[in-house]
UniProtKB/TrEMBL annotation:
Belongs to the ABC transporter superfamily. GO terms for cellular component: plasma membrane. It catalyses: a polar amino acid(out) + ATP + H2O = a polar amino acid(in) + ADP + phosphate + H(+). Its EC number is 7.4.2.1. The lineage of its organism: Bacteria, Bacillati, Actinomycetota, Actinomycetes, Micrococcales. InterPro entries: AAA+_ATPase, ABC_ATPase_HisP-typ, ABC_transporter-like_ATP-bd, ABC_transporter-like_CS, MetN_ABC_transporter-like, P-loop_NTPase. This is ABC-type polar-amino-acid transporter. The keyword Transport applies. Residues 9-243 form the ABC transporter domain. It holds the Pfam family ABC_tran. Keywords: Amino-acid transport, ATP-binding, Cell membrane, Membrane, Nucleotide-binding, Transport. GO terms for molecular function: ATP binding; ATP hydrolysis activity; ATPase-coupled polar amino acid-transporter activity.
Length: 249
């Protein structure tokens, strides 16, 4: 087990090209165990690309990414194993539409971790309880609100016992009244010591839960600071410009 405060996710000298478009430019980022890092920046700056490379939904052009001391292989069985250590929650909920809420949460543990159905279901119910949707367990995803579906997506990711959770704008597709119910679950997760990388423009969340804010622009990490430093006293012109636009919307 990695000790709290030890490097868990290490992104080193990463370059990513899509054809001749340079999407990640020499990105270096270390996230320690138990740390919550919020990634913020303008549209197209590479935030989603960074998340997707961290669990190898995208390959990288050069550099390395390691999780808990193990470098991510490009493909194969070892990759499937390491990918299971990274939980991912996207903007769209990505639940399996034709499976119940309970089945959505038990599928990975049964098929990938080889758990017994009864054991997987018992744990899934605890997780659904924790995110406040246990009473919906037998329903289909479409019968739930967006906020509830997103909380199920979080429970589903947690059921795999990930070492780190990646969130890519988890609340940006939600109606305003549902945003807080999802953020509350995330704040709780953070307080429990989960290592988290969160792409979000929710500054309330960043101030409440983040240890660090990483600001990206044009495929680069331009600035890294505590939330207080970043929001009160951004250093770069890009960050100042970005924040001024965010605040006036
Ligand atoms: N599969 C792809 N092929 C080609 N270009 C891509 C691909 N995916 C992303 N890009 C480009 O890479 C850049 C970074 O995209 P990315 O989705 O990482 O940005 P982002 O910071 O997440 O933006 P947003 O805030 O809009 O979600 C963009 O210019 C985008 O057009
Ligand atoms: Mg994105």
């Amino acid at each position: 087990m990695t000790e709290s405060g030890q490097p868990l996710v290490v992104v080193k000298d990463v370059q990513k090209h899509y054809g001749d478009f340079h999407a990640l430019k020499d990105v270096n980022l270390t996230v320690n165990k138990g740390e919550v890092v919020v990634v913020i920046g303008p549209s197209g700056s590479g935030k989603s690309t960074l998340c997707r490379t961290i669990n190898r939904l995208e390959t990288i052009t050069s550099g390395s990414i390691s999780i808990d001391g193990q470098e991510l292989p490009a493909e194969g069985k070892a990759l499937a194993h390491l990918r299971a250590e990274v939980g991912m929650v996207f903007q769209s909920f990505n639940l399996f539409a034709h499976k119940t809420i309970l089945q959505n949460v038990t599928l990975g543990p049964i098929q990938v971790l080889g758990k017994k159905k009864s054991e997987a279901e018992a744990e899934a119910m605890k997780l659904l309880e924790r995110v406040g949707v246990a009473h919906q367990a037998q329903k289909m995803p479409a019968q739930l609100s967006g906020g509830q579906q997103q909380r199920v997506a979080i429970a589903r990711a947690l059921a795999m016992h990930p070492k780190v959770m990646l969130f890519d704008e988890p609340t940006s597709a939600l109606d305003p009244e549902m945003i807080n119910e999802v953020l509350d679950v995330m704040v709780e997760l953070a307080a429990e010591g989960m290592t988290m990388i969160v792409v979000t423009h929710e500054m309330g969340f960043a101030r409440k839960a983040a240890n660090r804010v990483v600001f990206m622009a044009d495929g680069q990490i331009v600035e890294e600071a505590t939330p207080e430093e970043f929001f009160n006293n951004p250093k770069s012109a890009r960050a100042k410009d970005f924040l001024s636009k965010l605040l006036t919307h």
